[in-house]
Design brief:
The protein has about 625 residues and is of the alpha+beta class. It has 14 helices and 26 strands. Strands 1, 3, 4, 5, 9, 12, 13 and 18 form an eight-stranded mixed sheet that branches. Strands 2, 6, 8, 16, 17 and 19 form a six-stranded mixed sheet that branches.
């Protein structure tokens, strides 16, 4: 965390917007929404929180704040609509997906040279501007301002709503995304995970700027960015390597952040192990490997004490755990090392690539090595107070908390292409500071990059990674996002493991504890064996999409984003049975809903889909041209 502010260093010389990258999530509730996480470990919301009274998904709003900084760049005061402070916000959301280039593979890895070319999407459409949903910028100020909508953009002549701006009671900016609506202008069904011509969705991104006057004096304000993205179906889950971990690594490499000499056990080491065990609620393989009562249940008090032990006697235990983690120069070809997550080149070259599986960031691995050697800050306190709101933190620590809270719930695992953002965020050229995207000059036209996007174009100073424009972040993602979400499964090689490795279980669950199984767990009239058996059962999260063809399932998701379950936090039994005191349970029963699959249009229903043959898995050189 940042150093505390001294009483002699409270002169505000500049300002900055936080979080530097805000995350808003679409939802199909026409009325209800909530604020996204503002502290890294937010308390769980009550069951049912994420849906409105009709079962529709609430939208997740991003809230931006402005902090006054002293000469050392430390926050000394939040600047709100109080006396002496004038704030005007400007935001520009856009969606460029349909006018951009196909996703075949991350273009910053060697395997890109062997992948299919990334041609323009909708190449047959001559009017490229008609494919860009750009309502222009919106400006807002004051307190409790009524919604200002991004509703004047069009896709092939059809109006598309991308979200809205509001302000809260203190004049902070609130950004809401779209309603999760996706469609094709010609009525054609979606047929693949990432590049469906004719389709659009209502995710978007763009710059967030503000003008600030403090006692009549104009301040320079560091700008931010907003990304509106898919819903979070596992709201208490974090991937083992988060977007914050990835961007922190880049900030250290570029010199925007100093390299820490010693890791904190509580902040840098324990979260890695806890996330492995927390994934038990969204993937059956992680449940058996790291879950309740397993040999590596790192959420247990016993394990936490052992992990926190810096003694020389515990060195070999720490070393053996460190050696379990994948290291690319040693065992990148194997699915066995931790974490059990697919990588950017999953499916390419029949698996003969070191990027078939995910590795932690160099900073995370370096911290684990120091921890294994006993060189870490032993600051574990099981009774330490965890803040439940941002206001419980000192002002100097609030900007970092907002940054981490937004980005730790974003994925940096397989960029294939991803959930919120994808591979361009690994480029140092994308940033003007730590966690802060470099903005292109306002109104500057983007060059015509030609019919095919290549690695070489991306690496040029005039390329698409140098200076971002409205829609520049999300355009690299799948269109529509639902087809990619419905394609991300686990355990594609059943001869190895039916559940592992996995793609994105923290955001897109694989196997879940169902409401009916949970009811049996809590039913004290049942035998212990029946309750334990119910707890051990998991069902495929995407079973609510039906048992039809792959195309039927991805179209069901495109048309009904609330069909699949949100994983809620629920109390465990209290009658003494040996089961977790807190559980995470799907809020929807995993059973098909009749009438929603559109099977007549998408193909006859079949059982036992071979997921290893879908485009996302079998490698770009083997994909059909859709």
């Amino acid at each position: 965390m940042s150093s505390p502010v001294s009483a002699l260093d409270d002169t505000i010389v500049s300002a900055a917007i936080y979080p530097p990258i805000g995350i808003a999530r679409v939802g199909n509730s026409p009325t209800d929404w909530y604020y996204g996480p503002e502290i890294p470990e937010p308390p769980a919301h009550p069951p049912g929180f994420y849906r409105d009274s009709t079962g529709a998904l609430k939208r997740e709003a991003a809230r931006f704040r402005i902090y006054g900084l002293n000469a050392q760049g430390i926050a000394v005061r939040e600047l709100t609509g109080a006396d002496g402070v004038e704030i005007e916000w400007t935001v520009h959301l856009a969606n460029q997906k349909a006018a951009w280039y196909e996703f075949q593979i991350a273009l910053d890895i060697p395997e890109a040279a062997l992948a299919d070319p990334s041609y323009r999407r909708n190449a047959q459409v001559e009017d490229r501007a008609s494919l860009v949903i750009d309502p222009g910028p919106r400006t807002i100020s004051g307190k409790e301002h009524a919604p200002v909508a991004f509703d004047s953009g069009h896709f092939v002549g059809k109006p598309v709503y991308l979200g809205e701006l509001r302000t809260d009671g203190a004049g902070r900016l609130v950004v809401l995304g779209g309603y999760g609506k996706s469609a094709s202008y010609n009525g054609a069904p979606a047929v693949t995970f990432g590049n469906n011509d004719g389709w659009h969705d209502d995710t978007a991104d763009g710059p967030v700027m503000a003008t600030v006057k403090l006692d009549g004096r104009s301040l320079t304000v560091a700008p931010a960015w907003i990304v509106t993205c898919p819903p979070n179906y596992g709201p208490q889950q974090k991937s083992v390597r988060t977007m914050w971990d990835l961007m922190r690594q880049l900030a250290i490499k570029s010199g925007f952040l100093p390299k820490l000499k010693r890791p904190s056990f509580t902040s840098d080491i324990l979260p890695i192990f806890e996330r492995l065990s927390d994934l038990q609620w969204v993937n059956e393989g992680f449940f058996h490997g790291f879950g309740w009562d397993s040999p590596y249940d790192f959420t247990s008090a016993t394990w936490k004490v052992k992990l926190a032990d810096a003694s020389e006697e515990n060195t070999e235990s720490r070393r053996q755990l460190y050696n379990q983690f994948r290291q690319s120069d040693r065992d990148s070809w194997s699915p066995v090392p931790w974490p059990w997550v697919y990588g950017d080149a999953m499916g390419e070259l029949k698996g003969k690539t070191p990027r078939q599986f995910t590795e932690l960031t160099p900073t995370q691995l370096a911290f684990l090595k120091q921890w294994a050697d006993g060189d870490f800050i032993a600051d574990y306190d099981p009774d330490a107070h965890k803040p439940k709101s941002l206001e419980e933190l000192p002002v100097a620590e609030q900007p970092e908390a907002l940054t981490r809270a937004a980005l730790e719930f974003c994925l940096a695992d397989a960029f294939h292409p991803g959930c919120e953002m994808t591979w361009p965020v690994r480029s140092l050229n994308m940033y003007m500071g730590a966690f802060r995207f470099l903005h292109a000059p306002a109104g500057s036209p983007e060059p015509d990059y030609g019919p095919v996007m290549t690695t070489e174009i991306c690496e040029t100073p005039q390329g698409p990674l140098w200076g971002q424009r409205p829609g520049s972040i999300t355009r690299w993602m799948a269109v529509p996002w639902q087809t990619d979400t419905a394609s991300c499964r686990s355990g594609y090689d059943k001869t190895y493991d039916p559940y592992l490795p996995t793609f994105w279980p923290a955001r897109v669950p694989n196997q879940v504890l169902t409401p009916s199984a949970y009811a049996k767990v809590m039913d004290t009239s049942l035998s212990t064996e029946e309750r334990l058996s119910a707890f051990a059962s998991r069902q495929d999260w995407d079973d609510t999409l039906g048992a039809g063809t792959y195309i039927a399932q991805i179209n069901a998701m495109a048309n009904n984003i609330d069909l699949v379950a949100v994983v809620d936090v629920m109390p465990g039994p209290t009658d003494g049975i040996h089961l977790p005191p807190v559980m995470q349970v799907a809020d929807r029963e995993a059973a098909p809903k009749a009438g929603l699959l559109g099977a007549a249009k998408a193909g006859a229903e079949t059982q036992g889909i071979d997921w290893s043959d879908i485009d996302k898995v079998r490698g770009s050189r083997n994909r059909r041209r859709d």
